[in-house]
Amino acid sequence: MSTTPHQWKKAGNFQPFYDPTQQPPTPLIDVSSVFPEFSKRNITILAKLPLHGNIKFWPVWNMLTRAQEQKKLDGIHTICCASSGNTVAALATLAKFFGIEHVVAVVSEDIAPGKLQILHILGATVTYAKKGGANALARELGEQPGWWDIDQYTNRHNWEAFEKWLAPEVWQQTDGQLTVFCATLGTTGTLLGSKNFFQTVTQPPQLVGAICDSNGNVPGARNVKKLMAIGFDCSKAPFPIEHDISAPHAFSMSALLNRHGIPVGPTSGLACYALLRFLKKAERTNELDTYRNKEDNIVAVFICPDSHLPYLDKYTTHLPDYEPVEDLLNF
Asked: Distance (Å, rounded) from C-alpha 270 to C-alpha 115?
């Protein structure tokens, strides 16, 4: 039955558009042709795109829904959040559906200008924290009457969202043939939540984490030191981690993917680079075949947190003349 414009206006409810339970699976794109060296070895490389172009829509929706169910939002007019930008952007979009009037973004002074512009457009109030102090400031603000700190780093409903939606989608889209699953470590929610789901399947894929180098110039990703600051010890991680990936390599891989029609940002580039490097190492150590499924194929997925658009000014910083680094695929 067709719906007239009048009926759309009468409905006036955009909430289902953002509700993950009412959305179709997000695209899972085969990018194997970009990396022919791997496809020749029966390795399929897949890019998983995020809900509404921002992976944080899943956990923010879940955290707000759970908080509402537990009556934590009663009497709350302002939610604050320490974030590199994506989480609080999703929060500023979704909070209104839960009766929250104001969102305060606690960000570092070096936030990407593109992300800052997005926050202003969405109506969030931006508060700057000194280096390394965003979490403490958000907790302090959240103690005020009528305020609540969503605290994505310790909120278990953050990683629960990936267990509920992201990981099951990928598993279904690969018909249960998935063998390697790679994501960057920022809040760590993507991998920890997905791990919980994959433990329920008969043949769980190999999880792989990706982190940046000590310079920490890849938006949304952390290095060893910054992960330790939020209580995640890389030496005790329940999965292998590809360490020390530089910003030029992350931005270069992002640029390469964009030039093949995949609109993803540098954090996605970091995950892709880490996945390919992991597979290349496995080949050199004669372990590659351990990641094949019953059909003798390797089906490998990397998770894309957002697009390139919030970071446009950063590409020239890391890629003069927009040219990827020459050793990009020399793992």
From this structure: 18
